[in-house]
Amino acid sequence: MTAAVRCDGVVQIYKTRDLEIVALRDVDLVIAQGETVALLGPSGAGKSTLMWLMAGLLRPSAGRLRINGTDVSRLSPGALDRMRAADIGVVLQNPGRNLIPYATAAQNVAFAQRAARTDRRRAAALLDRVGLGGMRRRAGAMSGGEQQRLAVAVALANAPRLLLADEPTSQLDDDSGRAVIGLIEQAAEENGTTVVVVTHDAAVSRALGRTITIRDGKVGAEGRHGEEFVVVGREGGVQLPPEFHELLPPGSMARVEALPDGVALRRAES
Ligand code: ADP
């Protein structure tokens, strides 16, 4: 089956006036259709950059990124816009940026449905699920938490094949956070939506099937059902998790010893 997301050696470099910042280096990643993934990692690791690439808002500096089988680097800006409107729901980090400030909650959802047939029942059900069924205020006059809940409803308005959300619960209390997580899980279960969420919220990562930890612009670790694994990269490299840096500090030398089911690294005395 075609993967929802496939990154092959993706590199992202930001060029500022006097500096080049390598935000992602050689990211290899496959996310299957219908998978639900939490993107974890420290601030500045490259999570939002990866999200922006998957949303088609950036094009990779090098490497290949395919979304639902389509190589995004080869799409014209118009074709990319059409793909985004039809297939991808995006919740950006600043919730206000996802919304039309002078439109009501219902109008925002209806506008997001423009690429497909407007479905009032679906729109009303989405707003109910995030506790905004009776909301009459314009989006620009809502609180940050209300805007965040509305942004998730807007992103799901079209039943997208891929939902990308950057910290969608950061401004929510526990109850609202649970409502948003429930809505995202429902989208995956009922519509087969592939979900990728950048999050620092443990409740969100627990609810999703797979975690991917980005460190220093690379896939550092993967988690399945609460257990963390390092990932062996294309040249055989692994990122040791920070909690092992005291035992094997970066730059130290180690002996590699074969075990029946893997290898052990032992610090070499220098
Ligand atoms: P995260 O989401 O994990 O916090 P980001 O993807 O936002 O990480 O950032 C990765 C790196 O790229 C950081 O060093 C950040 O400063 C840099 N960066 C992000 N966006 C830009 C930009 N528009 N211009 C220049 N550098 C950027």
Automatic annotation (TrEMBL):
GO terms for cellular component: plasma membrane. Coiled coil: none annotated. Residues 5-241 form the ABC transporter domain. PROSITE patterns: ABC_TRANSPORTER_1 (PS00211), ABC_TRANSPORTER_2 (PS50893). It comes from the Bacteria. One of its GO terms (molecular function) is ATP binding. Transmembrane segments: none annotated. Keywords: ATP-binding, Nucleotide-binding. InterPro entries: AAA+_ATPase, ABC_transporter-like_ATP-bd, ABC_transporter-like_CS, ABC_transpr_LolD-like, P-loop_NTPase. Pfam families: ABC_tran. This is ABC transporter ATP-binding protein. The lineage of its organism: Bacteria, Bacillati, Actinomycetota, Actinomycetes, Streptosporangiales.
